[in-house]
Amino acid sequence: MPSHLITPPDVIHLPNSFLVLNALDTNISTLSLWLQTVPEDYNIHLYHSEMYTYHDWAVQIASWAPKILVEKNHIKYLVPRVLESIDRRTDAVVYFGPGSEYPELIHYFLKNRLE
Questions:
Q1: Are 86 and 70 in contact (CB under 8 A)?
Q2: Going from the N-terminus, what domains does the chain have, and what CATH number goes with each?
Q3: C-alpha angle 56/12/96, rounded to 5°?
Q4: The whole model's pTM is what?
Q5: What is the largest CA-CA distance in the chain?
Q6: Average pLDDT in the 3-32 region?
Q7: CA-CA distance, 3 to 25, in Å (whole number)?
Q8: Hey, is 46 helix, strand or coil?
Q9: Which residue in 12, 22, 87, 110 has its CB near the most CB atoms, within 10 A?
């Protein structure tokens, strides 16, 4: 099965799923290119705070996704419902962006490849 970049309203509920919040277009482009080169299959749900009608979708995915990757410098743009959902899953949250352990989204995936 190939990797998938998933946007609302679609959902792929599998153990190798991720939720990425507020990534920049350049982060998504780089990730998409990398996914084409690796044999592992990733299911990456993408949500941006500008997806005004899909806040509930992000809350739903955040309730079960094994990892929630949040752009550190853009977290302030998330609506309270989405922020609350990730606050309940602090064990699953990983921050990326300038000033974090993973300066770019791709760095998380490079360091934490699926087995």
A1: yes
A2: 4-111 (3.40.50)
A3: 70
A4: 0.95
A5: 37
A6: 95
A7: 18
A8: strand
A9: 22
Measured distance CA(105)–CA(75) in Å, rounded:
14
Burial class of residue 18 in the structure, from the number of CB atoms within 10 Å of its CB (0-12 exposed, 13-18 middle, 19+ buried):
buried
Q: Which amino acid is at 32?
A: S
DSSP 47-107: E-TT-GGGHHHHHHHHTT-SEEEEEGGGGGGS-HHHHHHHHTTTTTEEEESTTSSBSSHHH
Give the dihedral sign, CA 91/65/21/24.
Answer: positive
Cα–chain center distance at 26: 14
Rounded distance, CA 93 to CA 67, Å? Answer: 6
Angle between helices 55-62 and 80-87 (to 10 degrees): 0
| Residue given tokens 């509920």 in the structure block | 13
The pLDDT of residue 64 is above 80 = yes
For the record, the structure tokens of 96 come out as: 């990326």
Among the listed residues 51, 31, 52, the one whose alpha carbon sits nearest the alpha carbon of residue 43:
31
